[in-house]
Fold this protein.
Amino acid sequence: MRSSPLEGQHRELGAKLVPFGGWEMPLSYPSGTLAEHRACRVDAVVFDVSHLGTLRVSGPGALDRLQQAFTNDLGRIGPGRTQYTHLLDDDGSVLDDIIVWWAGPDRFDVMPNASNTDRVADALGGAEPAAGFSAADVTAGRAVLAVQGPEARARLAEVSPEASEVPRNGVAPVAWEGAALTVAGTGYTGEDGVEIAVPTDAAERLWNAVTAAGIAPAGLGARDTLRLEKGLPLHGHELGPGITPLQAGLGWVVRWDKPSFRGREALAAERERGVHRLLRGLRVESRRPPRQGQAVLRDGEAVGAVTSGNFSPTLEMGIALAFAPADVAIGDELAVDMRGTSTPATVVKLPFV
C-alpha cells in the first residue's frame, strides 16, 4: 500500500484513511463528506490526488507515439493545453481514461488512474531511444493537489497569483517559493479550479499555504459524489473491461479521422453494427441511494445494472449512472431493485446538476 507525501497532514487533520487503487488516501475529514461536497459547490476545497499516476513522455517522437496509442487527437490542441483521451484494449474497451498535460514542445505528462499506471506505461512501450521518446514514471517525485470550487481561483491567488491564472484546460510551469510547480486547469468535480503537481519536498508547504488561505480539505468521498452529480465516469464503474467509449456516451473522445490507434478496428465494427446498451442517468424517487450492481428494471424485468449510485447532496435524492438497452430514452420510467424493493427511477439528461 503506497501513501501520499501528505499523509502526515491528513492524519493531523483527523482524516479517515482508506485503501484506494493501491494507495492509502483520505476518504473524509471530521467535517464529513456532505459538508465537503457542499463546500466545493459554493466555495473552494482542496483534494490530495497524489494517487493519480504521472508518466512523463518526452523526446521528438513523443507526440507520434501518443497519437498511435490514444483515441483523441493531440493535433487539435498544442503545447500549454490539456486533453481528455482513452487508451483502448484490442477489443475496443477502455483500458484507462487519461488526461494528457502537454507541458512543453516535446514533454507530455500523461495522467492515468491510480491502478493503471503500469498498464499505460506498457502500452506506450516505455523507454525506446531509437523511437525518439521515453516514458518515465515520475509519480513518486511529486504530489498533486486539486483546488476546486467557484471561489478556488480567488482563494488560490492569495497563495500564488500565477497558479490561479492558469486557464481552464491550460497547463503551465509556475515558480512558487523556490519550487517548480506544474499547474493545469483540470479537475474532476465539474467546478472551476486547477490541479497542481508539486515536488514532494515542497508538498507540505504548499498544502499548508492552500488550507491557510481558507480552502477546506476534502476527501475521496466528496470527490465521488461531486463527479457523480456531474455525470463524470469513473474507471472500474462506467469504464473498463467490456465497456467501450460508444457505450459510455463518450464517442466525442474518439477521432475517427486519425489513421490508427489501438482498438480502432473493433470500435469501428461496433459503430457500424450499433451499440446494444448506453450509459444513462437515473433519478430515484427516494433519499435511499442506489448502489453499484443493483439491477435496472423495465416492466419488472432486469435490463441493465447500476454502475455508480449515491445520495446527491445537491438534489437531496438518490442518483445513479447505469447501463440500459440502447432504446431506453430520456424521460422513460424504469426502476432499480434496491435490496428486493423495486424503486421507481426516471431517465434524465446528464449532468444531474
Residues 276-348 form a domain with the Elongation Factor Tu (Ef-tu); domain 3 fold (CATH 2.40.30.110).
